[in-house]
Amino acid sequence: MEWSYKNICSLWEFRREDMKERKKKGRMLHVLSIVAGGILAIIWPYNKNSSFLSFFLIICVTVIICNLIHAIVHETGHLIGGLISGYRLISFRIFLLTFVKIDNHFKIKLQKLKGTGGQCLMLPPKGIEFAHCPYYLYIMGGIFFDMFITILVFFSAVWLCKSPLMKYLLLTYVVFGILLAIINYIPLPNVTTDGTNLRAIRRNKLLLQSFLQQLVIYQTLCAGKDFHEFTEEEIEIPKDADITEPINSLLLNIQYMKCLKIKDFKMAEDMLSKMESEYESMTRRMQFTIDVERLYLLLIQDVDIRGIKTHYKNIKKDMKKNKNIPSVLRTLYAYERIIHKEKNKVIPFIKRINVMLHTTPIKQEIQLNIELMEWVEKQIIAAA
Predict the structure, then answer these.
(1) Which residues contact 292 (CB under 8 A, 6 or more apart)?
(2) pLDDT tens digits for 166-211?
(3) DSSP alpha helices (H): ranges in the chain?
């Protein structure tokens, strides 16, 4: 596609309509949250003798604690299901606290990954072909264990608990447990969950290979392997695979980042164009990734500056909300340096991405984005 100003404007007319449609479909999550809030309002009777502030603070603290416990229970369920199926632990994370297995020893690290409260990553069983590898208990273990504990808590609250306050606390946990089980299992627009992964694999067994393949890739990345060191076979998506499936998105990203690592921007352009051809069928998270990468590639090409500014204007709000994503920082850096020739405005981006080197499980991703920021300085700013 020729990236003229007119074409970029036409592109965004289409994408804005697609986003409006997705927002309509995505209201289910808001409805579920409102229902849960209504149930909590019934469970927690307001005491007129206490201040509204203290009442509100108690509920907020309870919600935070319930969220923390559910994250621990959910990821423990994945761990139990994986161990039963013969999987081997790579890392176990609850919010920032991460237990990483290195050379048969566990190390505690502080790591974070946007969009996840926890994560239990495991390697597939040894000696079993991917096509015949068990997966059900590993994927669904989190939901099963969460519901098991939720049921126990419910019976404890109804029949065993004597204290009214403790009963309210336990029932709040139950409401959260049911809500999270629904969110994790039923298909929701723009959200990738355990349930959507399970249904996708059952629908198309080729996706099981991609699912297990990305676990192996993640382990090798944690061990220090860089993007350009992966062979085509290691990051290959099965022939005729549906690239719009979220399970395939990691492999797509690794392939794309390999192109960026070796500075093959022609191949990166071809790959991004391929993803854009399926844009309307991608998850919102993948669409945002495509939008950010498109802006970066427009910036380093000889493109009408009006088109670049139009593209930036349409994703500026989302980029500002996602400054903890390395590719967003790199693209914002490139925009400010190339379009506005700014030096001071990019300092926060540099500081933030350097901090990420100490908190991310995949340091190669951060290093790649730092390299691409330096490449902008050497190849574009210095040559201007």
Answers:
(1) 315, 319, 325, 327, 328, 331
(2) 888 888 899 888 888 888 888 776 678 899 999 999 998 889 999 9
(3) 5-25, 27-43, 52-84, 136-155, 164-185, 194-203, 206-222, 246-261, 265-276, 284-299, 305-321, 326-339, 347-356, 363-375
Same domain, 232 and 363: yes
* Res 34: pLDDT: 72
3-class SS of residue 197: helix
Span 262-295, pLDDT tens digits? 999 999 999 999 999 888 888 888 999 999 999 9
* Phi and psi based region of residue 78 (left: phi greater than 0; alpha: psi -120 to 50; beta: remaining): alpha
Element containing residue 105 per DSSP (H, E): strand 105-110
**Cβ atoms of residues 282 and 291 within 8 Å:** no
- Whether residue 246 sits in one domain with residue 148: no
Q: Which two tokens stand for residue 80?
A: 């139990």
Domain count, the chain: 2
With a pLDDT cut of 70, the percent of the chain lying above it is: 89
pLDDT at residue 193, as a whole number: 87
Are 81 and 127 in contact by the 8 Å Cβ rule? The answer is no
From the CB of residue 320, how many other CB atoms can be counted at a distance below 10 Å?
10
pLDDT in tens, 222-238: 888 999 999 998 998 87
What residues form DSSP beta bridges with 99?
A: 92, 108
Task: Give me 40's structure tokens.
Answer: 């909590």
CA distance linking residue 327 with residue 227, whole number of Å:
15
The sign of the CA dihedral 189, 195, 200, 206 is positive
My answer on whether 253 and 171 are in the same domain is: no
Same domain, 204 and 285: yes
Q: Are residues 232 and 370 in the same domain?
A: yes
pLDDT of residue 95 exceeding 90, the answer is no
The reply to whether 177 and 265 lie within a common domain is no
Examine the domain organization and report whether 42 and 139 are in the same domain: yes
Q: pLDDT-based confidence at 300, cuts 50/70/90?
A: very high
Residues 258 and 145 in one domain: no
Domain enclosing residue 309, as ranges: 5-23+198-381
